[in-house]
Structures are given as C-alpha cells and as structure tokens.
Write a structure and sequence with these properties.
Bound molecules: S-adenosylmethionine, iron/sulfur cluster
Number of helices: 12
Distance between the termini: 60 Å
Strand order of the largest sheet: 9-10-11-8-7-6-5-2-1-12-13-14
Helix content: 25-40%
Order of helices and strands: HEHEHEEEHEHHEHEHHEEEEEEHHEEH
Radius of gyration: 21 Å
Largest sheet: 12 strands, mixed
Number of strands: 16
C-alpha cells in the first residue's frame, strides 16, 4: 500500500513537471526558437517624423483601431503567462500616449523584484527622448532600469532635418534626466550614408561622456517614407572596420535579449553595438515577437504574416482563444526575413508597414 502511495505521488510530481514543461514550451516555434521577448507598440503616433521611418504627411490610425491600455495589458499578460520574460514598450513614440505613466506602473507590478514575485525579468522602453525628462523618474519607480533612446546626430540643424520636427535640446535633456534617475541608456543611431556617417566618432565619444552605450543600426526598408533609403544605406561592417582604426574595440559576449552584437570601447569603457538586419541577419537566434498598437501579432519584423488578436478579443474570445491565436502565429514564424536594399541596384524590398507600427 505504502509503495503504491509513493508511486502515485511520484506520478503526480512527474505529471506536474510535464505540465510545467508543456507550459514553458508553448511559445517555441518550429525552428526550436523559444519566444521570451515581446515588443509592444502602444501607439503609431509620434511627435517626430524621422526620414527613414515615416512620411512627412503620415496619417495616423483612428483612435478606435488602437488598443486601449486594458486590452494591451490583457494581451501582454497572456504572453507573460506563457513564459515571456522581457517586455519592451515602443511605438510610434510611446511617451506621447496619455496615461503612459500608470501603464508602466501596472506593468512594473509583473516584475520579479525583491518585494514582489512577478514573472517578468525586464521591462524596457524605446523612445525618441523628447518627453523623457517628464517620465524618467516614473519609469525608474515602475521598475524600468534601462531605456533605448534614438539619437542620430549631435548637430542641431541635422537633428531637425532628420526628425523633421524634433528638437535636439529636448532629447538631450531627456537623456540627462534618464541618467539622473538611474536609468541605463543605450543610444540608437540609424547609420546613414551621406547623412551622419561623419559623426560616429563624435557620438561614440559623447556616449562615453554621459555613460551610455551606442548602438548603430542599418536602415531597413519598412513602409513608404517618401525618401529613397537605398541611397543612404550603409553596411555596418565597413563602419566597424573604420572605427577600429581609431578605437580599441573588443568583442564582448553581452546580449540584452535583442539583435545587437556588442564590442567594448576601451577608451570610454562603454559598449558599441551593431544591428545588421541587412548585411548579416540575426534570425537564427530570434526570440522576439511584436504586438502592434492595433493588436496584430507579427512574428518577424521583416515579414507581413501575423494574426489579429484584437479581432479575437473584441469578438468575445477568452484567454484560451487568444493563446490559440498566438500559438497559431508562432507555429508559422518565418525562419528569417528577406530585406533587400541597395544590395542589388534598384532593388528595395521590405514590408509595406512602417517601423512605427511595430516599433523597434
Ligand atoms: N519613437 C521611438 C524611437 O524613435 O526610439 C520608438 C519607435 S522607433 C520606430 C524604434 C527604433 O526604430 C528607433 O531607434 C528608430 O531609429 C528605428 N527605426 C525606425 N525606422 C527605421 C528603419 N527604416 N530602419 C532602421 N531603423 C529604424
Ligand atoms: Fe517617431 Fe521613432 Fe519613427 Fe522617429 S523613429 S518618426 S521618433 S517613431
């Protein structure tokens, strides 16, 4: 009898382990990639119109198409319950959305922290920095510890030209406020031939002076922006070789869950990262999916395929129906993107949607 009891107990524990294993594996795609990172775009709107991202006369979505914060939280929670450990909030410009502070405070309660047993390892943000001085402390209090801030130049006129309506001083203020609040900052710089390629040394030195990492990004052909991105495409392999003539760069294995590959800059003590979707894709280790502000789940930045979770949710679907939709999409996650830009003369190939729909 005692032996039987022990066997039943063992069977129960094995059952629990298997169940847990199944739960953990529910977001593994057919290529074996475990999906642990969700990027959530909270708005398609923005106070800038960067030349590589949007058209000057960008038309934004009607408000009713955009998910409410309650809807965004509900969908995000389904992912977190299925093993997503990192959330990055993006846009459009996430900080222009009203009540973004309380949204971060709610998400912060899902973090694993000494005082709470949440399931999330990390909550981060990508921003253009224009409103960061207003929100830096709120973000830190909510549990955010690092932010990515887009900054393509340190020259005021050039900044105005690239962003079409941004103010360099506002972004620099935001970065200063973020550092003062205790947030680690990574500067995201889209590398553009003939636009800011003469500034990488200055940016690297400036990042060292404010204690920020710098991450250079190749221009991707996402959506029609009314400008020819083929002409400004700059392969980062060339940039790296060039920088290495003046800076001591040592590869470091650090990964932050995203696609950047890092090197330590001995002269500043900071890191430089390279994101090379065009010249060297990083799809083999992709652990990410992206939720647009309309509730469409994209399993690849460079592909159109996805699933409309808003339809499922707004037609009364319960969390099991939402999860079935997510699993269906992940089962079709492409093995890689197929961007083409300036690699064959005249060929520009990428999704029709703008980067501001799914964020970065
Ligand atoms: N507004 C915020 C910002 O600018 O940081 C968040 C959204 S923005 C779409 C996210 C990132 O995507 C920014 O770092 C931006 O520079 C980058 N990005 C936008 N369009 C891009 C493109 N066509 N190619 C490469 N990066 C792009
Ligand atoms: Fe706005 Fe960011 Fe796109 Fe620039 S890159 S237009 S700041 S969403």
């Amino acid at each position: 009898m005692g032996g039987q009891w022990r066997l039943s107990l063992a069977a129960f524990f094995i059952g629990c382990l298997l169940y847990k294993g199944l739960m953990l594996s529910s977001l593994i795609d057919p290529a074996g990639r475990s999906i642990s990172y969700l990027r959530v775009s909270v708005t398609d709107r923005c106070d800038m119109r960067c030349v590589y991202c949007m058209a000057e006369s960008m038309r934004f979505l009607p408000r009713e198409d955009v998910l409410s914060f309650e809807e965004l939280l509900r969908l995000s929670q389904v992912f977190v319950h299925q093993g997503v450990r990192r959330l990055r909030i993006t846009g459009g410009e996430p900080l222009v959305r009203r009540d973004i502070g309380p949204f971060f405070e709610t998400l912060g309660q899902w973090l694993q922290r000494p005082e709470q047993a949440g399931k999330l390892d990390e909550l981060t943000l990508t921003t253009n920095g224009s409103l960061l001085d207003v929100y830096a402390e709120t973000l830190f209090k909510a549990g955010v510890r690092r932010v990515n801030v887009s900054l393509d130049t340190l020259n005021e006129d050039r900044f105005a030209q690239i962003t079409r309506r941004g103010k360099l001083a506002a972004t620099l203020n935001g970065i200063k406020a973020a550092r003062a609040a205790g947030l680690a900052v990574r500067i995201n710089t889209v590398a553009m031939a003939g636009v800011n390629e003469d500034e990488f040394d200055a940016l690297l030195a400036w990042c060292g002076s404010v204690g920020a990492d710098l991450c250079l990004i190749e221009t991707m052909p996402m959506g029609d922006t009314g400008t020819d991105r083929t002409a400004s495409y700059l392969p980062l392999s060339k940039v790296k070789t060039d920088l290495a003539q003046r800076w001591t760069l040592t590869p470091v294995p650090d990964r932050t869950g995203g696609p950047a590959r890092y090197m330590r800059v001995a002269e500043t003590g900071q890191r430089i990262g390279f994101i090379t979707p065009m010249s060297h894709n990083f799809c083999g280790s992709c652990n990410r999916v992206r939720l647009s502000c309309t509730g469409r789940l994209y399993t690849c930045l460079g592909q159109e395929d996805g699933i409309d979770l808003r339809d499922i949710m707004r037609s009364g679907g319960d969390n099991a129906a939402i999860l079935a939709g997510i699993q269906d999409a992940i089962a079709r996650k492409p093995t890689g993107h197929d961007f083409l830009l300036g690699q064959e003369a005249g060929v520009v190939n990428g999704p029709a949607r703008h980067m501001s729909v799914t964020g970065g």
